[in-house]
Amino acid sequence: MSTSSTLPERDPVRVLVTGGTSGLGLAMATALAEAGASVALTGRSAARAEAVAAGLPGALGLELDVRDEASVARAVERAWSRLGGIDMLVNNAGIGMRTVNPRFMTDPRGFWEVPPDGFRAVIDTNLTGYFLVAREVTPRMLAAGGGRVVNISVNDTTMRRAGFVPYGPSRAGTESLSRIMAADLHGTGVTVNLLLPGGATVTGMLPLDAAPEGVAFLEPSVMGPPIVWLASDAAAGVHDERIVAAEFDTWLREREKNGR
After folding, report:
1. Exactly one of 130, 167, 229, 248 is catalytic; which is it?
2. What is the pTM of this model?
């Protein structure tokens, strides 16, 4: 089984990670950069993105608001130009339930209590944002002869849990979008896969108050091994998979046992 934390020493894999200044995005950008990839990470603040990137080997930071088509176009053009292309897009930028209910885990509220502006902000970021960035990157990958798209998602339970509007619907949309993207791109050389932590994770999306008793949190670093593998030669041709980071070792053993 190949779970190496480094990538081949030939031309570095060029990766664009949206929402890479904190949480899962930073964990993945860090793992990729340390494995030898050339990483462009984005955030809404150019200064913050640049400061975070400065702490990673060979990384660059770019301003990107995934809700804004012009911002997306500028950032993708800059990333493509400065990296010399993009081999992998990691669609990760998102906002969580805290934006509409700071105590969503201990004080869940009905969907009818969610302000419309809050609903739109989450959908625009978590779903429309994935679409806009992938829409900008994919034609470039197709013209270049191939590429990889990884869309970050969450557990199925989050998509139907009480008190989780609008975050749950935004991630259910992410899953549907990813599956359709994979179907549209079948046989083109551009692959699409889903990656999720596998449980509540220690990020800025956690509620302000304590979580209910018995809730265990994952560390963002759980995303490192699978994202590095997805960028590696071993993952060439892997398409339309849903990979749970917390179960990655088991998933990979089963995959290799079955000769895939």
Report:
1. 167
2. 0.91
